[in-house]
Write a structure and sequence with these properties.
alpha+beta; Fic-like fold; 2 domains; six-stranded antiparallel sheet; two-stranded antiparallel ribbon; 14 helices; elongated
């Protein structure tokens, strides 16, 4: 049976402080970038990506990421789709038209938000009409369970049930056609109330997206409309459209299923992560903003920026260094605790000439040894698609475990991106130390011990950062110690 939608949850723990802090950093930088052509091109590329990916998620068309990158770079061209996507010419033209419809929608979202209009059923129906302008038919299920093809009328609520059958044979129940109008009125009313009361954007976007898909008011195209609605929420908070990439499809669908079970947090977290990624990409634009200008203009702009920033930014940007030092203490204490556990057992196991031991070393920023592990830190960052700036800040803590092989775990803190914006990052990697013939050692089997980037900034409260970091650190330790445990079975 269909379960009616529920209002926006009031649980304050759903809010993602990392996104809130990073959004504050972005808003500090936004005005200086908005006038630059670099930022405008960044937005155009993001709009193209939204338009392309929202159809890929629905499997309206499929190709590898390289084709998507070409279309983002050069614009939506049927010739690119045909030649690089491997689609027949007629099909390519149709797909190009569909993507253009989706691009028109995301363009319209910016205009809608700029006009400060309220979200209405009428506007939602107009989004659907635009998105399905080149989609004439869709599947529907008769009361007897038979699948038939019917005309898809853009902007009109469904007249036939569209509840899908699951792989196990059961049915996932969307809202019956006769209840759609009431549910949509309730959705819009609750959205406006929550928006006016200051619900965090990641919570409101996830709620609006999921409750809309729970209703599934249109015969087809509901997922694309839902991502447009989520984008509106973020745009109203001066953030970015909600781009869900094909690589995110599995966690995205899993999060929606969790929300169906009443667990909205995974979807909130996913949406927050996508926004954080967009903000970090935008912050890196400042490095490129003046590349195309003449030298005198670059100097003039740089001097003005330096003067305006010097007084107001020094203390608050340096606050992130204090946070890094606090997190470094957390790492040292945790690794020293593990060393104590290891020491109790390793000394007993070692026999004869075999000396088993564990050791913890630390280098703070500006210490002579802080430059150690540079290549490994840069490589770990590259695997997570960011630039590790060790000129801004660098510190590390290392746990070494020596049995028949010398295993090392390194946790590093360093700057994020080419230009310092008050954002630092942490990474973790493991390696083996292999003896060389000349008496020295070299690294081997270098592997990341973190599955995701941990970034923090000067805006986020210290306790919030420490709480997030504690979870990230424990996950990294689990990965690293599993790696070490597996090595014990190696002859």
């Amino acid at each position: 049976m269909y379960e009616p939608i529920l209002p926006v949850p009031q649980d304050s723990s759903f809010a993602q402080p990392e996104l809130s802090a990073l959004a504050s950093v972005w808003n500090d930088r936004r005005e200086s970038l908005e006038v630059e052509g670099t930022f405008q091109e960044f937005l155009r590329r993001m709009q193209r990506e939204w338009a392309i990916e929202t159809g890929i998620i629905e499997r309206l068309y499929q190709w590898d990421r390289g084709v998507t990158e070409l279309l983002i770079e050069h614009g939506v061209e049927a010739t690119i789709i045909s030649h690089r996507g491997g689609l027949p010419e007629q099909r390519s033209r149709h797909v190009a038209n569909v993507i253009q419809d989706q691009l028109d929608v995301v363009d319209g979202l910016f205009a809608f938000v700029k006009g400060e209009q309220q979200l209405t059923e009428h506007y939602i129906r107009s989004i659907h009409q635009q998105l399905t302008a080149h989609q004439e038919r869709t599947e529907a299920r008769t009361p007897s369970g038979e699948t038939v093809y019917i005309e898809l009328r853009g902007g009109e609520y469904k007249k036939h049930p569209n509840s899908p059958r699951k792989p196990d044979g059961s049915t996932h129940h969307y809202c019956p056609p006769e209840l759609v109008t009431d549910e949509m009125q309730r959705l819009v009313t609750w959205y406006q109330e929550a928006s006016d009361s200051g619900v965090p954007p990641e919570v409101l976007a996830a709620w609006l997206h999921h409750r809309f898909t729970q209703i599934h008011p249109f015969q087809d195209g509901n997922g694309r409309v839902a991502r447009a609605l989520g984008s509106i929420v973020f745009l109203k908070h001066r953030l970015f459209p909600l781009v869900v990439r094909d690589k995110d499809r599995t966690p995205y669908l899993d999060s929606l299923e969790a929300a169906d079970r009443g667990e909205l947090r995974p979807l909130i977290t996913l949406f927050a992560q996508r926004q954080q990624s967009a903000i970090l990409d935008a912050l890196n634009l400042e490095r490129d903003a003046h590349k195309a200008k003449y030298a005198e203009q670059i100097l003039e702009s740089a001097f003005l920026r330096l003067k305006s920033r010097a007084a107001r930014e020094k203390d608050r940007l340096n606050a992130v260094f204090e946070t890094a030092a606090e997190l470094g203490v957390m790492v040292q204490e945790r690794l020293l605790g593990l060393k104590s556990i290891l020491d109790e057992t390793l000394t007993e196991i070692g026999q004869g000439d075999v000396n088993y031991w564990a050791d913890v070393k630390h280098a703070a920023d500006n210490e002579d040894r802080a430059h150690y592990f540079y290549n490994q830190i840069v490589d770990a960052a590259r695997q997570l698609n960011y630039f590790a700036n060790t000129n801004t800040y660098r510190s590390w803590t290392r746990l070494a475990i020596s049995t028949r092989q010398r295993f090392e775990l390194v946790v590093s803190f360093h700057g994020y991106g080419h230009e310092f914006q008050g954002v630092l990052a942490a990474s973790a990697f493991t390696s083996l130390r292999i003896p060389r013939e000349d008496g020295g050692t070299e690294f081997s089997h270098v592997r990341p011990a973190s599955t995701s980037l941990f970034q923090f900034n000067y805006q986020e409260p210290l306790e919030s950062t420490k709480s997030r970091f504690s979870h990230w650190l424990e996950s990294s330790l689990a990965i690293a110690l599993t790696e070490w445990s597996n090595l014990l079975d190696t002859p």
